[in-house]
Design goal:
The chain is of the alpha/beta class. 50% of the residues lie in helices and 11% in strands.
């Protein structure tokens, strides 16, 4: 009888431990899902455009005038090896871009969690490729998109003039008669550096205007408040 009592005691103890751990797991999962759902409802604005468009300058001008928004520059998420490759004219593969997009979205979720729910998040990044935009829109479907449209010649001159930045834009075209495209390199791969057309709703800003002018337009949209309609890409 004593052995049976001890066996029942320990069995009951293990059962309570399993129940407690299960409750903790489901509670943690529920909190994570709630946080993710809340982040999708936050007001998120993205300033995007080709390298040298002036995105960071406009974002800084907007943030300097506002106490209801905080900034996220996704360049911080670009790993060192990718920065080095950019400097060598090597563009990331689709799989590498997908991994980066996941990391950038996770980083933004973390920044959202650090700020008040009534603060808008102002993101600046190039979003050159459609696949990067699709990954972001799937994670933050109510994002307001502001395309800083700067003429390529002006943007490239800015890229050439700036110091200390890892991204120098597309490399000079190769002479295809002497350096043919390798067999394992697709035609798509040779066009990865080009800024892809935008096929979803967005606001176009004139990149030749003073940064303060474009910053005022973005802040006006933020003050009007509320996230955009769901613009996630079709599945």
């Amino acid at each position: 009888n004593q052995k049976m009592a001890l066996l029942l005691f320990f069995s009951f103890g293990r059962l309570r431990l399993v129940v407690a751990l299960s409750s903790l797991f489901f509670a943690t999962t529920s909190l994570a899902l709630t946080a993710a759902a809340l982040s999708r409802e936050r007001q998120v604005c993205v300033i995007f455009g080709r390298a040298g468009a002036g995105k960071t300058t406009v974002a800084e001008a907007a943030l300097a005038r506002s106490d209801v928004a905080f900034g996220v520059d996704l360049d911080i998420c670009v790993p060192a090896w990718m920065r080095e490759n950019f400097g060598k004219g090597i563009y990331p593969t689709l799989e590498e871009r997908r991994a980066f997009a996941q990391s950038a979205c996770d980083y933004t979720d973390g920044e959202l969690a650090k700020h008040r729910s009534d603060e808008a998040c102002l993101v600046s990044f190039s979003f050159v490729n459609a696949d990067l935009r699709d990954a972001w829109r799937a994670r933050f479907p109510r994002t307001r998109w502001f395309l800083l449209d700067t003429p390529p010649a002006i943007a490239q001159q800015r890229v050439d003039d700036r110091q200390g930045h890892f991204y120098k834009g597309s490399p000079p075209p190769k002479n295809q008669t002497t350096e043919p495209t390798p067999k394992n390199q697709t035609t798509e791969g040779t066009n990865q550096w080009a800024f892809a057309p935008v096929d979803f709703d967005h606001v176009t800003l004139d990149g030749t205007q003073p940064p303060a002018t474009n910053a005022a337009l973005i802040l006006d949209a933020i003050r009007r408040g509320g996230p955009e309609e769901d613009s996630s890409p079709p599945r």
